[in-house]
Design a protein that fits this description.
Length: 202
């Protein structure tokens, strides 16, 4: 009888273990394996997204720099001739350099195969050597890109000071006026229909 009870108990234990394995442990392991596999897939898909996010954050961090560079480029080579603005700027640097006289002429935009048009510019100024150098420096510092192709100097007379007031009366002395002819070019980003060949003067 005792042996029979032990056998029945052992059988119950085996059945309980079998039920626990089939209905609890085995499904749990299967679910764990499934979750593990899904996690691995999610991590694989997450990597390129993380790379894109990092790139987007880097782009955003440099957005202000890119915007400033683009604005600088648009000022240097605008999409339209913007001749009136250039003449105003030329007048401004003439006043700042204390140039006594200035003349600005320009030709029509001349497009080329690259899609960039060039505008020939002629500038005549009159002033002392120091004033002329200050003007040329300010001309090169304009936001608008101006390429100077040539500078021609000639005597423009005396500024009115007496000869004894200066140690030298040569063309580059402090009292001598220079007449300077500047040949230069500006650029337009988009092709432009050639305008009238008449040059504007200020």
């Amino acid at each position: 009888m005792k042996t029979k009870n032990l056998a029945v108990g052992a059988l119950v234990a085996v059945l309980t273990l079998a039920l626990w394995w089939n209905f609890l442990l085995k499904p749990s392991r299967s679910e764990a394996s499934k979750v593990k596999a899904e996690t691995a897939v999610a991590r694989t898909e997450l990597q390129p997204l993380q790379a894109k996010l990092a790139q987007a954050q880097a782009d955003q961090a440099h957005a202000a720099t890119f915007k400033a560079q683009l604005a600088s480029l648009q000022h240097a080579v605008p999409n339209s001739p913007a001749l009136a603005e250039f003449i105003r700027n030329a007048n401004g640097i003439a006043d700042a350099s204390q140039i006594s006289w200035q003349s600005v002429t320009h030709g029509p935009p001349a497009p080329d195969a690259t899609g960039v048009s060039s505008i020939a510019v002629g500038i005549i100024i009159k002033g002392t050597y120091e004033q002329v150098m200050a003007y040329l420096t300010r001309l090169g510092s304009l936001k608008r890109l101006v390429v100077v192709d040539g500078v021609q100097f000639s005597s423009g007379g005396d500024a009115g000071a007496t000869a004894g007031a200066a140690g030298s009366t040569g063309p580059f002395s402090g009292t001598s006026q220079l007449l300077v002819t500047i040949t230069a070019r500006m650029f337009v980003a988009s092709p432009t229909t050639p305008a009238s060949a008449d040059a504007a003067t200020t």
